[in-house]
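Section 3.1: Structural characterization of target chains.
Under the original work plan, the team committed to producing a structural model for every single-chain target entering the pipeline before any wet-lab resources were allocated. The record below documents one such target. The sequence was received from the expression subgroup and is listed exactly as submitted; it comprises 121 residues.
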Amino acid sequence: MPDASITDLLDAAINRVWNEHDDTRRLSAIREIYHPDARIHEPERTVTGDEAISAVVAGVLADMPPGFRFEVTGATLGHHGVAVTRWRGGPPGQTIVSGADAARIVDGQIHEHWFFFDPAS
């Protein structure tokens, strides 16, 4: 059975951080969900800390078309402090990017968050 608290954290990161265009609200959500020294790992970079994570999210969202949102597709699974989920992103009715995330949760916050992108089709 999935550990609800860790799976909820990963879902919250996607919904409340990676979809938030307002810098103040996004930074507030990051500080609630992520550890202060959290690291996010994308294929091309790793960044550490709430301000750096917020800057990455702002850059990603700025590059996306109007109406773009990330959404979890299917169940988020987790145990022993690790949660994984699949997601898609795009404007309503379109998928322009998809992949999977994994997060290591310690003491109720995300300490590390990995992003895996499906190959472009």
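The domain at 4-117 is CATH 3.10.450.50 (Nuclear Transport Factor 2; Chain: A,).
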